[in-house]
Amino acid sequence: MTRNTYLIGPVLLVMTVILLVYKSSQIGSSFDRERWESSFHPHYMSRYHYNNHLQTYASGYVVIFFALPKCGSRTLLSIVLESRDYQGGHLTVDNNLTLLPVEMMADEEYAITFITEHLSYIRVPAFVYTHSRFVDIGSSFAKPLRYISVIRDPLDRLVSRYYYRRNRDETDMTEKERTWREGLSGIITNETFDECIRRDRSECTSDHAYMSTISHFCGRDPRCNHNATWAIGRAKYNVVNYFDVVGIMEDYASFVSVIEMTLPLTFRGATEIYEVLQSKPSDGVASMKTQRKVPPSDEIRRVVAGKLHHDYEFYYFVKERFEEQKRMLDI
User: Fold this and answer.
1) How far apart are CA 106 and CA 5, in angstroms?
2) Nearest CA to 106 among 260, 220, 235?
3) Could you tell me the pTM of the whole model?
4) N or C: which end of the chain has fewer CB within 10 A?
């Protein structure tokens, strides 16, 4: 056997390593995606959205942000709109799926058709902001998809949403919000949240109020609104099998870091932009906080937290999954 024959094995190994390093650099990610995919606990992370990462990072993808109201969703939209990629024309942003047809509430096929047609001509990479309940449009949509969201302590979100409907925040009112508020005229009262609970108003005590987080991720099956046991199972299934990231509002900085690392084509520079928005006294994150909130009494907090136990179970499930993502990314 010649000396050249002995050299073939090491040379091929070196060439393979160089090729793998080169391919990794072309993807544009800052973390070890193979470690991320193979080591994540299967109970909290499906491989559904990771098995094609190498292909879709090169070609671009559509990120759909299924925004749950009063969970910092407009903050993320502001971050994207401030990004160099968007302002330089390299990222498409669509935030026209907020005021949605009533038919979308219960008809999943209608929702899939409506969203798919609306996004059919969108150019990738793209960020889509919607208040729609979760629906997977992957089977009807030609472009690669990524789903994200963020949730919040259920009681804090319920209180914030209650007062936002009455007092809003310091940002300028958009035409869409003006239309929405006109629809609330004559419906809402000027009671405190405590009074709303004590008087058993449906706004604060209905199944919809107590299951609103779960139903957002569960979807449009009628059981999502009334069968808590079934709904929480479906909501967890959807998070595990379809969502790349579901963050926690109480740890928003980490949420921004995670999405920047896992979806860099859409959120490049997001962490830096978020820090700048936090520092602005008038037109930054602070301006989006609900005004004149009256904290609920300890008694009401205990009563309502007990009724929100399904939403809390889901919240802690998502939080544990998110903490695992942070550990994987060394955040």
Assistant:
1) 68
2) 220
3) 0.77
4) N
Which amino acid would we find at residue 236?
K
* Angle formed at CA 141 by CA 140 and CA 144, multiple of 5 degrees: 140
* Residue type present at position 127: F
Max CA distance (Å), the chain: 92
pLDDT of the residue at 193: 84
Secondary structure string (H, E, C) spanning the chain: CCHHHHHHHHHHHHHHHHHHHHHHHHHCCCCCHHHHHHHCCCCCCCCCCCCCHHHHHHHCCEEEEECCCCCCHHHHHHHHHHCHHHHCCCCEEEEEECCCCHHHHCCHHHHHHHHHHHCCCCCCCEEEEECCCCCCCHHHCCCCEEEEEEECCHHHHHHHHHHHHHHCCCCCCCHHHHHHHHHHCCCCCCCCHHHHHHCCCHHHHCHHHHCHHHHHHHCCCCHHHHCHHHHHHHHHHHHHHHEEEEEEHHHHHHHHHHHHHHCHHHHCCHHHHHHHHHHCCCCCHHHHCCCCCCCCCHHHHHHHHHHCHHHHHHHHHHHHHHHHHHHHCCC
Residue 24, pLDDT score = 36
Between 133 and 56, residue with greater pLDDT = 133
Contact 26, 109 (CB under 8 A): no
